[in-house]
Design a protein that fits this description.
By secondary structure, the protein is mainly beta. The protein has one domain: Thiol Ester Dehydrase, Chain A (Roll), CATH 3.10.129.10. 15% of the residues lie in helices and 50% in strands. The chain is built from one helix and six strands. It has a six-stranded antiparallel beta sheet, covered by helices on one side. The radius of gyration is 14 Å and the shape is elongated.
């Protein structure tokens, strides 16, 4: 994964699929998409925290909307914060393929670690 955009409350990361990402059906394993979603949402939360303050994922809810191929398909994950409080934060994320088609959506709740 590589960062392509970072701003307060929003992070975009990309990756290219490869055969090592395969599930038994010959498409990208859902765990790869979940990892991209967890990363962009968590990093979006992190952009709104003070220096020295951390976070951890409390809850992750993923919806898989479309299968993804294994041959260098570009996946773009975008995470945005919905709420950042003193103890918890909520964010949402999307993953789109190179054509802009939505392939996954998620929400997360994070625990803020002072």
């Amino acid at each position: 994964m590589r960062f392509t955009e970072v701003e307060p409350g929003r992070v975009v990361m990309e990756l290219s699929t490869e055969p090592d990402f395969a599930n038994p059906h010959g498409t990208v394993h859902g765990g790869v998409i979940a990892t991209l979603l967890d990363s962009v949402m968590g990093c979006a939360v992190h952009t709104e925290l003070a220096a020295g303050v951390g976070y951890t994922t409390l809850e992750l809810k993923v919806n898989y909307l479309r299968a993804v191929g294994l041959t260098g398909e570009r996946l773009i994950g975008e995470g945005t914060t919905i709420h950042v409080g003193r103890r918890t934060a909520v964010a949402e994320g999307t993953v789109r393929n190179g054509a802009g088609t939505l392939v996954g959506h998620a929400t997360t709740t994070c625990l803020i670690l002072s």
